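ok, trying the design again with the full structure, not the truncated one.
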C-alpha cells in the first residue's frame, strides 16, 4: 500500500486573507511535497502593526515546527519589501534561530529566480498602485537589480484576484519595454497560468511571487523530492533545475 505521507514537507506562512497560494502549490508542486500552511495578518489596511508582524511570524513558524516541516516559506511579498533586504534577513534569521528550520521569504525567492534567469533589468507589473511599485522598486534596486519599467493594475486583489488573461494583456502591452524579463508581483493573485503565455508571446522569462516561492522550496528540498517533471505552466524558471 502506498503511503499518503509526503517525502518532503514545506511549511508556508501565508496572509490570513490569501486564497490562492495553497491551491497553486498543491496543484503545480510535486505530488510528494506536502504543503503545511498557517496564517497571520500581514498588515494590509493597517490591521497589524509593523512591530507585531515579526512576533506573529515567529508564532506561525513555531506552529509549523510542531508539524515537522523541513523548510519554512514566509509568503509576505509586500511586508518584506517594506522592511528592505536587511530587515527581511533579520526576520528569516529570527525564524531559523527560534525553530532550527531553514527559512526563506517569497521576496528572497523572487530575487533568486531573477538572478538564475539573468534578469538584471526588470519589468515590474504590480496588481496595486504607485505606492506598491515604489516600495518594490526600492527593494529590487537595493539588491542590485534595475527596474527598467513598472506599471500598476490598480485592481482590488483582496476582493477578487485579476484573472490570468488580464495579466497576459498587461504584460503584452508593457513587456516590450527595455528589460530582460518580467516580475509579476503579489501572492494573492491568479496569474500563474499567465506565465507560459507571456513567455511565448514576448520571448522573455517571467517570475511571479508564488511561482518563485514554490521553486525555491522545491530546490531546497530536491533531495527529498527526487524526480519531478514541472508542469509547463510554471515557465522557464522550473527548467533551470
Amino acid at each position: 500500500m502506498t503511503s499518503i505521507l509526503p517525502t518532503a514537507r514545506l511549511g508556508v506562512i501565508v496572509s490570513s486573507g490569501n486564497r490562492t497560494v495553497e491551491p497553486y502549490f498543491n496543484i503545480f508542486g510535486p505530488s510528494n511535497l506536502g504543503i503545511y500552511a498557517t496564517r497571520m495578518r500581514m498588515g494590509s489596511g493597517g490591521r497589524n502593526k509593523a512591530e507585531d508582524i515579526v512576533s506573529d511570524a515567529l508564532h506561525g513558524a513555531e506552529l509549523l515546527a510542531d508539524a515537522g516541516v523541513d523548510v519554512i516559506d514566509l509568503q509576505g511579498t509586500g511586508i518584506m519589501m517594506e522592511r528592505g533586504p536587511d530587515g527581511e534577513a533579520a526576520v528569516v534569521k529570527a525564524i531559523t534561530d527560534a525553530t532550527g528550520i531553514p527559512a526563506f521569504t517569497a521576496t528572497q525567492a523572487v530575487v533568486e529566480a531573477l538572478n538564475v534567469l539573468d534578469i538584471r533589468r526588470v519589468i515590474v507589473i504590480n496588481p496595486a498602485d504607485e505606492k506598491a511599485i515604489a516600495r518594490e522598486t526600492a527593494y529590487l534596486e537595493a539588491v542590485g537589480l534595475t527596474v527598467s519599467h513598472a506599471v500598476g493594475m490598480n485592481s482590488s486583489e483582496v476582493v477578487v484576484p485579476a484573472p490570468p488573461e488580464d495579466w497576459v494583456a498587461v504584460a503584452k502591452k508593457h513587456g516590450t519595454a527595455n528589460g530582460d524579463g518580467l516580475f509579476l508581483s503579489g501572492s494573492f493573485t491568479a496569474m500563474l497560468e499567465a506565465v507560459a503565455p507571456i513567455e511565448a508571446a514576448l520571448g522573455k522569462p517571467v517570475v511571479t511571487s508564488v511561482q518563485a516561492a514554490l521553486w525555491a522550496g522545491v530546490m531546497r528540498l530536491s533531495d527529498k523530492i527526487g524526480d519531478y517533471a514541472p508542469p509547463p505552466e510554471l515557465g522557464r524558471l522550473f527548467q533551470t533545475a
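Keeping the full-length input from now on. The radius of gyration is 17 Å.
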